[in-house]
Amino acid sequence: MTSNTPRGLRWTIRLLSVLLFGLFMWLQGFVVKDINDQEGPNRGLIAAEHEDSALVEREKELNKNAAHIEREIARQEQIKVNRKENMTVAKDTWNQFAQEHRLYLDSNQPPPAELVGTVQEAQTLYIEATKEFETANGKISELQESQYTVALEKEGMRRELERQRGEGYDAYMELYTAHRWQVAAGKLAFVVPLFLIASWLVAKKRKSIYRAILIALLVSSFLRVGIVMHEHFPAEFFKYVGIIAAVIIVLSFLVHALRSAANPKEDVLLRRRREAYQTQRCPDCAYPVPEESGKAMACAACGVDLYTTCSSCDEIRHELLPHCRHCGAESEKWHGAG
Ligand SMILES: [Zn+2]
Ligand SMILES: [Zn+2]
């Protein structure tokens, strides 16, 4: 792209370069993702290797037992509530008929056989309910005892399993970390050479008409290197790498700018000098100079030769421009001055 490329075409090239940059990013993203998706260590398998399977089975059994005991205790509690109700009802009935029974005895009359039967029945019911209540109580005590035993065994088992699971986790993390490093190395092995090749091409092919394509490749691979580093390296480490990379980039731009300021490129130099001669100023120090009058002339301020005698036609020529305006002869001297 030069300064005389039409505006529309220039913008088209810029737009296409940005689009190409996006496509490069996308493509590199796919490759990096494929590298990233490599299967890592299997966590379940490693955990199983470190766990005592008999212990795991026993733990399951104990959990089942504990749940069963809990359900049984709840059932016995329910029986207790029922029997307690039965006892109250039986006792009330018993009391009521016993009172009647006593009235007969107090008035020296034999109580009817039916009444005697009812009193006895209520008494039996009360005694039975009481017995059942006591039985349920006893069962609950037994159950609570085995609940305690199970809890004790479970606690010991839990500690042992926790230790084994901790070991399994550590072993997994070790393998996982190694796997992540491997993935990072794989990604860098793809993006770093790409970045280096792109940098080399951009540096080498300064004048190439395909420079925009190379720059798109360079910027996209540079960003991709940054993304990979950011994903895989600790923030502390990344910070230093990032700062060093930024320093290198800024320095290279600065060096480039300083160099071109000290040694302007031919076209820049030529433009500057043309403008200076047109506006009648010294190209080197910008001091105003009189119009060319057919005689050799130097700058009154800095002493640089402005008009000299042409070595081909002996007319007066611009010393700091490439060609003699009379004969067109080209002078190599104009590069050196300035
Ligand atoms: Zn001057
Ligand atoms: Zn000449």
Q: What is the compact description of this entry?
A:
This protein is mainly α. The protein contains 8 helices and 3 strands.
**Strand sequence of the main sheet, in spatial order?**
1-2-3
In N-to-C order, the SSE pattern is HHHHHHHEEEH
The CATH class name of the domain at 43-177 reads Mainly Alpha
The description of the largest β-sheet is:
3 strands, antiparallel
Q: Which geometry do the CA atoms define?
A: rod-shaped
Uncertain segments: none
Give the helix level as a range of percent: over 70%
Named at the architecture level, the CATH assignment of the domain at 43-177 is Orthogonal Bundle
User: Total number of β-strand segments?
Assistant: 3
Which hetero compounds are present in the coordinates? Answer: zinc ion
